[in-house]
Amino acid sequence: MRVLVINSGSSSLKYQVRDTTTDEIQASGLIERIGEGGGGPANHGVAMDQVAAGLEGILAQKPLDAVGHRVVHGGERFSEPVLINNEITRSIERLNPLAPLHNPANVLGIRAITAKWPALPQVAVFDTAFHRTLPEYAWRYAVPDSLYRQYGIRRYGFHGTSHEFVMGRAAELLGIPVPDFNAVVAHLGNGVSLTAVRGGASVDTSMGFTPLEGLVMGTRSGDLDPSILIFLQRQGLSADEIDTLLNRDSGLKALAGNNDMRAIVEAAEAGDAHARLALDITSYRLAKYIGGYHVAVGGAQALVFTAGIGENSAAFRALVVDRLGALGLKLDAVANLERSGSPRVVSTPESAFPVLVVPTDEERAIAEATAAVVLGTEQR
Ligand code: AMP
């Protein structure tokens, strides 16, 4: 199948055309500054016109079979990818308050495609869906039930498409059937989240009501005492200012002055104390979470690293695994340094369980899920 994968942000639109049979990427691109003036397209509809114009050549040879959308928030309703119709689009729209930066853009992307190619099947693939198997004791906050009933305040989790894809590849590499697979998956990119996988299903994950909870990230604080927010509000900061502070101006950026892991590792090696401390805080907190998730899955059969930092930073992987001696993990120094685009083991045979590096590919996962939904629907 020829699938157009759309990842639509508030002011950007990333796309890929993929052949799901050969796994070939036939076209890809990024459109930026949507609705920001300065030569950028006026809205998502105009951006989609630009995508279509760019694809004219390849679509003349063979048309698209389907479109797959990355949708950030599926709320409690969506636990699987779904074929989009008007009612589904409205349901996604109703989730806008839960993901105000992301879902409105996803809806605009869907509507732009509907307007352009009304007959083309579209599938929504949700970032939250893989975490719909979290037990209630993992997703509940210890707050009055009315907050859940009135506002949907609970833990949802994100990066699900990546965690599920990486978990599946890891199980395959180790020759363990997915329903028997227990693992801790660390998605370490600009956004960072950890997932506890038990029997192939997500049973806990570090992001919560929003992608701010959990680990230290590129520009996000991760966990902190919620009283800090109340304190700052009493100091006169507005909700928007606190939002920016914790989502955009915190994390590695606040600790080390930038959010590029390469630069931080180099600075730390050159003796920069801020960079050193940033690496210590980040790796320490991640190691504590990994220990907790080892317990949550009833003993992991693998620790899996993925995404920008997880796949590429041998130095950061070493910092984390060095703190996991209590779990009996032992990194293979040579294997850890090898650069490769393939799933691989980076621990020694003496390690209590293997440490893996598995490249993520959310676009591929979305394209495959889209093809499966469309083919499944046609067969019914
Ligand atoms: P992602 O969000 O998955 O694209 O990951 C972005 C993060 O990956 C940034 O913090 C980058 O600094 C980091 N990253 C990308 N390539 C490398 C590399 N070769 N070494 C260390 N960090 C890297």
TrEMBL record:
EC number: 2.7.2.1
Main subcellular location: cytoplasm
InterPro entries: Ac/propionate_kinase, Aliphatic_acid_kin_short-chain, Aliphatic_acid_kinase_CS, ATPase_NBD
Active site per database record: 127
Locations listed in the record: Cytoplasm
Residue sites binding substrate per the record: 70
Keywords (A to Z) from UniProt: ATP-binding, Cytoplasm, Kinase, Magnesium, Metal-binding, Nucleotide-binding, Transferase
Binding-site list for ATP: 14, 187-191, 260-262, 308-312
Top EC group: transferase
Cofactor: Mg(2+); Mn(2+)
UniProt pathway: Metabolic intermediate biosynthesis; acetyl-CoA biosynthesis; acetyl-CoA from acetate: step 1/2
MF terms in GO: kinase activity
Catalysis performed (reactions): acetate + ATP = acetyl phosphate + ADP
UniProt: Mg(2+) binding residues: 7, 362
Function noted in UniProt: Catalyzes the formation of acetyl phosphate from acetate and ATP. Can also catalyze the reverse reaction.
Assigned protein family: Belongs to the acetokinase family.
NCBIfam families: ackA
Self-association state and partner proteins as the record states: Homodimer.
Annotated PANTHER family: ACETATE KINASE, ACETATE KINASE-RELATED
Protein name as catalogued: Acetate kinase
Organism field: Arthrobacter silviterrae
The encoding gene: ackA
